[in-house]
Every structure is written in C-alpha cells, then in structure tokens.
Input
Amino acid sequence: MSDVNKTIQKWHASFRKGTDFDSWGQLVEAIDEYQILARQLQKEVQSTNSTDFTEEQKKTLGKIATCLEMRSGSLQCTQSNEEFKLEELKKLETIIQNILTYNKEFPFDVQPVPSRKILAPGEEENLELEEEDAAAGAGSTEAFPPRAPALQGTLLPRLPSEPGMSLLTIKIEKIGLKDAGQCIDPYMTISVKDLNGIDLNPVQDTPVATRKEDTYIHFSVDVEIQRHVEKLPKGAAIFFEFKHYKPKKRFTSTKCFAFMEMDEIKPGPIVIELYKKPTDFKRKKLQLLTKKQLYLHLHQTLHKDS
Output
C-alpha cells in the first residue's frame, strides 16, 4: 500500500472514530477526534511540497475540515440547534475514502478554512539558515506568505462538564524576555502532547498580545484545555510555544517554548522556565533560553463537576 493510501486510511479511521463517539453520545471524545482530524487535513491542504493530491482534491479536503469544525462547534454550543448534524457529516465518509477519484460536486455549500502558514517544529530554523545562505535581496523571501496568525487567535471554548471530571483553565499572564519590546505580533501556541510528541488535543493559538512593558509581554488570556484532566495519559505535557513575526524573513518564527507536566497541574499561580528552540516535544534535549530570571507566568483553575 502506498504512503498516500495509508494516509487516507488513517484519516478514514479517525473520521469513523469521531462519528462513532458522536453517535454514542461521547461528545468530548468526538470533539477531540473531529478537531485533530480537521487540523491534519488543513496541514495537507497547506503543504506546498506535497504532490500527493491535486489542487481540486486539496480544496475538497479543506471543505471536509470546515465541516468537521462546524460539527465540533455544534456539539460545543449547548444553545445550538445543531446547525451541522451528524447525519450530514456522515455523508462525507465516502468522499474521504475515495478522495483520489472523487469528482462530484461537494454536498455542502462551505468554504475551506482560510489557509495560514503552519511551520513544523524546526522548520522555521531551516528557513532562516537557507535565507542566511542565500544572497541578500535575491527576492527569495517572496516564497513566504505574509503574516501567519490571525489576530484574534484560535482559542476554543470550555468543554461540557462531566460528573467527577476536572477541566483545566490556564490563564497565560505574561512572558519575560530580554528583547520583549522588539517582538512583532507575538502570540502563543498551546498544545498537549504525549511522551512521543503526538497531539492529544486540538492545538490552539492565543490572540496577538498588544501590551509590552519592560521585559514582559502581557497576554492575560484564558486557555481551555480540551480534555478532562483525568483522561490525560501518564507522561503527557502541556506546551507553550512563543512565536513572533520576522519582517525580513516574512514568516512567523518560534522564539522559545515552555511546558508543564501532569504533576504541576494544581490550582493557583505557577512560573515555568523557558527553553531554546526548536521545540522538543519529546523533552529529551532541553536547553534553557537564558540564565536571567525570565519565565512564563501562568495561573491555573480547575473546574470539577461533582
């Protein structure tokens, strides 16, 4: 079986898993699965070096990602009249399975999620090296799209509560950096990874921070972790990647990262250390960003439905 067929098979299995959870009433798990699959499809759509799919097929994948996010949104909004129903979503199963041969009109009038540059860990460093090796002003920067993050971010609402289960809200208060004032369009990407660096939850971006003061950039924003604390596997960690825009390179780069392990989840304030890029999701080779007393300042709140 070719790599592309394996990828399609993996997407199909994820789609079935999500719709199964949905039909069983396991909404939290369904939302997780839909959002993770939507992100995987978006990454494929936005990949510039992938020749596995035609532009038309990528457009279809982007529309499927939109439908997954719409269904996920319907499940998260208790006031909703289920704008996008499970029965409608299930119509997309054969399209995912047969994406390489599908040539009919898409069954729903939706648009692909707007594309934005998603850089894999370490990719921005490679781009920087290539840029530095190239002659200055050779025009190669045109390859990079302008501005990555949406100003308003991609933060998600709190999950529905479940009896005996805890949900975690993390307020990102501020980050300490020696050149805080020089960072353009700074924002934070939050992800939850297992020991192998695999996403357990949908990845979220904060809005761009606008307040800078001395060596601090203030965020003052709440992030809702998209899984009950009790369902996070042993060895999981919550990652915070600080990103900013580089005008000369015309892309968004990761400057540093921090993470919080499961034994650090407890109500109240916490201050965590910053590490040098590239982001090491497996936590094997960590290098502190600075010896100065500069950290990421967070405040945790646990919500338990008794």
The first strand starts at residue 166 and ends at 176.
